[in-house]
User: What shape does this take?
Amino acid sequence: MLTIPNNENRKSNRLANEKSPYLLQHAHNPVDWYPWGEEAFNRAKNENKSVFLSIGYSTCHWCHVMERESFEDDEVAEILNDNYISIKVDREERPDLDHFYMDVCQALTGSGGWPLTVFLTPDKTPFFAGTYFPKESKYGRPGLTDVLTQIRAVWISDRNRLEKSGNKIIKTLTSKPEPTKPSDPHPQLLEHGYNYLKSSYDPVYGGFGAKPKFPTPHQLFFLLRYWKQQDEPLALEMVERTLKCMYAGGIYDHVGYGFSRYSTDRKWLVPHFEKMLYDNALLALAYLETFQVTKNPFYARVAREIFTYVLRDMVSPQGGFYTAEDADSEGEEGKFYVWSRQEAIEILGKEEGEFYCNLYDLTPNGNFEGQNIPNLIKPHLNKQTYGIINGDVDPLILNRLEMARQKLFAVRERRIHPYKDDKILTSWNGLMIAALARGAWVLNDKQYAQAAVKATKFLLTHLRDDNGRLLARYRDGEANYPAYLDDYAFLVWGLIELYQATFETNYLENALKLTREMQDLFRDKEDGGFFFIGHDAEQLPSRTKELQDGAIPSGNSVAALNLLRLAGITGNQAMEKLAAEQLRAFAGTITDYPAGYSFYLCALSFYLGPPMEIVIASSRQEPVTTESNQDNQKQNQNNTQKQNQDQNQSAKLLEILRSAFLPQATILLYPQGDEGEKIAALAPHISDKTPIDNKTTIYLCQNYACQAPINDSSELVKQISQSPKNKTANKIEDKTVYH
Assistant: This one.
């Protein structure tokens, strides 16, 4: 899967022995690279040299640019090799190093990004930092050759000054206030977060802020929960418009499916073409939840298309999910994804080609550097596009477009593909497991459960050390690096979702086991919260806690919601207390900017309730799972009429639960037999809940009050329909949304 540029005439450096695709991309640079480790720092000490640290990732466009301009350049390599010890780090393998040195860069420059460039003393103390440096000064940026020369001169003439500067930076970082600011978590935080998002919302194209625009699906998760609790229609409108406009734009791959990392413009037209596993996992969840809320099949279709992309292009033979696909191919960003109008017409034929080109904005002059990114950003041009993004298009039109898409896709598959980073990260796999499991539950599609199960088995089998400690990265037969907080939190999230999709108790058991390990390794027993690195990992000058969301939710916030859900499932009061402590530890921190902590707000929303506990008491010994329902229905002819009725009624009850948006709910299956004994051992409070009249029965408790047992589907609908009614957002209107 890994494709390294042809460097037959280049001598390899030490990175050739690494597993990271990013490091291997640099294995034939003339720079004498080292991986992070004591060998490099010992040599720096022995030779009295400073360290040049470069941090990036394999699908980073500007990392590629800096490599081509500088790290493949003999002049730059000579300066580095003569005067520095050079170290390359993959930020996705070592997010601990990336977090720490990114804090340094932001403290020194006020901004950050990748590639991250840091100069260190031999004892790892940073004294200068920046991001991308061109070889020669341009774009208003100093040239790398000038920076290297000047820093080397100061290192020789006044090393003491650089070391003092570095020590001052470390002191500032280690003495800055921790994000742990205890305060009572209160409902006003939810309102503050909503008001901030409302103030930055783009009512024309959706999303928040101006360009560039990022998906940030966790903000949409929060808005859906705010709509649910507060009966606020604008919250749902913001979600719907954002999801529809993102899909309409070029950030969505209308030929091969899946979302790119972000849009460079306000309209979502021109993406940064790299595709990341985590974006597609989180966006699939957002579309699934919005489908539950609105019942609009458009959202379910987009979720299925995302899964089609992932299961086609991003899954390893063993079941784990790859990390990302590059923006570049053949040295050009986006080349793989763009089309000329004439090319599309030649492939599709004149009539179908013009129909497709007019619909997807493929023009003679192009909409991107003379080429075209397929998009649906101008629905006022025709009724078909309007129908596509609002879920009411004629099925014949969809079929016609699908036939055209398949022809274009077949041709595109013959192009040179973007580079694929085929390492497997525990954290990002946890997110995709969560998304697929939710897809299996919401869409009642067992293929998604099967994919999530296979990935889970792979992680729990291969991402462990000899002592059973969870590890962060797997590639080419090697697992490495002690797992970080995000690995534990995201995998537990996936396991909880997988339990509630399949009702197989072993997933719940593993979620509880990993949560205990997480507490032992990462918990700050004095000030609350969880550190990013475990106490058994390589310690940096500052052991930080990550709380603010970035491209992915904060591990601390995901851990808080996991604890709350596990407490609700098991009835474990100690776990509930720990979850409350987690929320209280950070409540004061997020007051000034609650929208930057949207997943914390999701956890807080769950905590503030009202809670909903659902127990499905089944008269059958085997679980009533997503995987078994369809197969069992095929066996109806062999059952008695009464058994058929009971099974059909059970299926109806489950379908009602699947279709409902119940973010406050925990759902357990309590079947008879061995599986029932296993779940009762984990959740003793359900042991008195038995089927009524030997029929599948729902026990529902809302807002600390339990209802009478339910085995009638109409009564179940009545009991769970406490959400705002008829508050769906307005459809995207031609005149107001697109100009």
User: Anything to note?
Assistant: The first strand starts at residue 33 and ends at 35. The domain at 612-720 is CATH 3.40.30 (Glutaredoxin). DSSP finds 28 helices and 19 strands in the chain. The chain has a mean pLDDT of 90.
